[in-house]
Q: What sequence folds into this?
């Protein structure tokens, strides 16, 4: 191939990939911010605890799957040559690695553990509540479940923040590529 044909192919590819990249990246970044800082806060303040728990156990598996999918689509559409652009430079793939590992861990490890601990806590509260009419002192089982839930939930939160931070890094890198004309 001549260099002119290759240059035209790269330009055409970039023209196609750039809008897709912005679409996938903005959906990823916006959904991470919205779910983490708006939706959860509003739901926590507005819903009774059982409804909030039910909502979370249904939303987060989907959220984590979408996060991983959108990360892959965002990485695959980096202009000008998609995945090839990603491997050309460490500064291109490191933010995706830093965001992808926590997203995968949340999807396959900490998200499911946290969800399971939420469910087990509710069941344990029901079992403990049936034993007494007065104020209920948490049982040893309930205390252990709460500790396990807290540990897994904290890990999930921190992993999510790492992923968001990596996408802020990518947004900064992406914006620095823009050519501003005054």
A:
């Amino acid at each position: 191939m001549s260099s002119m044909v290759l240059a035209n192919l790269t330009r055409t590819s970039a023209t196609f990939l750039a809008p897709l990249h912005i679409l996938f990246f903005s959906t990823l970044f916006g959904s991470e911010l919205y779910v983490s800082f708006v939706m959860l806060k509003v739901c926590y303040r507005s819903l009774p605890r059982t409804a909030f728990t039910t909502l979370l156990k249904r939303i987060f598996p989907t959220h984590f799957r979408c996060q991983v999918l959108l990360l892959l689509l965002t990485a695959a559409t980096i202009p000008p040559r998609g995945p090839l652009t990603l491997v050309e430079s460490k500064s291109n793939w490191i933010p995706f690695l830093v965001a992808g590992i926590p997203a995968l861990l949340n999807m396959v490890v900490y998200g499911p553990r946290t969800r399971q601990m939420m469910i087990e806590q509710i069941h344990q509260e029901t079992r403990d509540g049936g034993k007494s009419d007065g104020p209920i002192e948490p049982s040893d089982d309930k205390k252990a479940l709460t500790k396990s839930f807290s540990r897994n939930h904290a890990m999930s939160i921190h992993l999510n923040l790492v992923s968001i931070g990596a996408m802020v890094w990518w947004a900064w890198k992406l914006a620095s590529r823009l050519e501003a004309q005054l």
In short: The two ends are 38 Å apart (CA to CA).
